[in-house]
Design brief:
This protein has about 350 residues and is of the alpha+beta class. Helix content is about 55%, strand content about 15%. It has two domains: about 260 residues, Beta Polymerase, domain 2; about 50 residues, Methane Monooxygenase Hydroxylase, Chain G, domain 1, CATH 1.20.58. Strand 1 and strand 2 form a beta hairpin.
Length: about 350
Amino acid sequence: MSGLSGTSYGADEHGLICGFWIHPDQPTESLPTLAQAQARLADPAGGFVWLHLNLTHAGAQPWLARHAALAESFLEAQQAGSRSSRIERVGDELFAVLNDVTFDFAFDVGDVSTLWMQVSEHLVLSARRAPLRSVDRLRMAVKRGDRPRSSVALLDHLLRDQADELQRIVRQATERVDDIEDALLAGRHAGHESEVAALRRLMVRLQRLLAPEPSALLRMLSNPPHWVAEDDQQQLQQASEEFALVLRDIQALQERIRAVQDETSARVAQENNRTLYVLTMVTVLALPINLISGLFGMNVGGLPFLQHPHGFWVVVGLILLLTGLVTMLLLKATGRRQ
């Protein structure tokens, strides 16, 4: 058996990102090509093979069609781009559609992609279109020497990595919401509307994509394949509970974000009302001068004070008098309303 140092990441002509033969009591063997993986599958020797493929590679789909004994649901789901999370039993194998964040995740709703998996007693086949964080963490863990005792234990490891990654996202989003709330309390809400809306869209998308997963996992555990050990079933049950906790955290964060949005909207509306009130006051106070200047600017016969030596100041005084009267009426109306 060869060590892991010879792994050629993503260099296989058929789109193989990484391949490993894993045995709980023996050193992990790297399988840098699908030809070597097929040879090892012919004699798994008590272990199992994990193959991780890049579906954007031109050679991946043809190889899967020719050599992989895939369930129809696997092919249909990845060809149709199925996005609903689930882990279900198909014959004597497990089929999983898992949603995860991309490797360059930046709190954007488009940074969520799909991983398709098929798990049998001696083979774990995973495929993705975009680099994903959780499966990459699993790949690095296997390279460092982690040896899951079975193919289901590898799936459980991936689920726990995914739950940890989601919890980290929720923690970072919570910190950003805390900062926005502090800014709102200090009266600085300008510029946060778009960020709050983006966070809410992200949480809604994560909950929508991940919410079906725990229930689907429980349905599978009620009738697992015969080769799934009882210990593995218990581990998957615990993984389901961890996901349920993360989903509850996401839901709680959604409520906080909704409250922040409501508060932000209320303050924006209050500022808009104040601005409109000021504009209305200025317009009303300018009404006398606009009205009188308009009348005296008609240039028709009979205009008063046309020949009066102090006519200009008389008109100015009239304007000030009317403006003061309007101001008193507005102040009285405002005080009555308050």
